[in-house]
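Reopening this ticket.

The earlier resolution said the output was attached, but the attachment link was broken on my side. Pasting everything inline this time so it's all in one place.
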Amino acid sequence: MEQMDQNPQRSIEGVAVSDWEDDNTGIIPDYQEGHPGYELLSKAEDGNCGAIKAIIKAHPEIINFKDGDGYTALHKACQCNFLEVAKFLIYNRADISAKSEEGWTPLHSAAHWDAVDCVNFLLQCGADVNSKSVGGSTPLHVASRSQKRDTAIVMLSHPSCDLSITNDAGDTAGDILRRNTKHDYLTHLAEKPFNVLKVEDTVP
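Inline output:
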């Protein structure tokens, strides 16, 4: 069974960051000062869209540059819920299906951090709601394990959401919701059209 403890760096499959409060190095452990690719990743983490626009204007070929763990600027923007940055990157051909070394897409990253705005936008742009990580987890598995209710609602409401998918531990996202949260009632949303239900319309 996939499990998590209080330290996401050690326990969560594919997470790109360590504890925000305790890690002064951010989410780019192999950062190289002056390298445009790493500058792009750093500015995406900061949500500095102006700087990102300047970097991409000068170096459009690095839009999908990855750090040592396989994370792109889009992963980093989405996990921080920087919607303006995510939109700019996608409109400039960032790969919404890019995978980290652990098989996480930007949607996995957004799902883990409950970045609802970016989850919505990624799905509207065609991100695969059922994409599987190295451990077989979909973004919904990730949101369920991390107890991210609002993100789970958005993905369960998507018409392509497949609740029958199991991860490598044999768990569906519904299994994880039932075991780890009080939100297992949300699984009925998988039978409803995308965006028919709003977050505020569901049971608290």
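Reporter confirms the inline version is readable. DSSP finds ten helices and no strands in the chain. Residues 1-29, 192-204 have pLDDT under 50 and may be disordered.
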